[in-house]
Amino acid sequence: MGLHERRQREKESIRASILQAAFNLAKTEGWASLSIRKIADAIEYSAPVVYDYFENKEAILFEISLNGFHNLHIELLKAQKKHDTPEEQLKAIVDAYWNFAFNNKEYYQLMFGLGMQCCGKGMMKEEFSSFQDMIYECTGEIIKKNGSNPDNACHMSHALFSAVHGLISIMMMRNDDIPSTMNKETLDETVSSFIKSL
């Protein structure tokens, strides 16, 4: 391995360590307490080294959020591929989204700015809208099968996304006084009613 390749690999390793340290700190202390100094201490480098790789904390959070959206996208695709009909695909996609949110709370909170400032300033890769796009695709297919008005697909799919995201947000921000079963049952009922309405 040449000197250039060795240095490149070392840079990639430090960059990955910064991201992992930030995520680990968020899991133990919360996103709000994250700082460049704490990240630097965790990887045993000085703060200026962290700034060599990322402009500021916002840039680190943005990169981590992209990882979250990428991981979510993979889970949604897995769920969709297990079913053939758009109705079953839609149910599976919504379930996968719900499960991702509660199995990866730190990611989800960062991705959507729950209890904190949302990062990224609107700059997101295509995975950002994958859930909405997949809902829209399934909704359009169901509407087509039923011979309903295709012009309703966009409005209806946006309404379902809002309902799902709203339920998750309520659960995450008020999980002490709301039973999870009630909200999952509400989610399932919402999806079933949504499909029937198409």
From TrEMBL:
Record domain HTH tetR-type: where: 12-72
Pfam family, one: TetR_C_33
Coiled coil, from the record: none
Keywords for the protein's UniProt record, in alphabetical order: DNA-binding, Transcription, Transcription regulation
DNA-binding region per UniProt: 35-54
Signal peptide: none
Name of the protein described by the UniProt record: TetR/AcrR family transcriptional regulator
Source taxonomy: Bacteria, Pseudomonadati, Bacteroidota, Flavobacteriia, Flavobacteriales
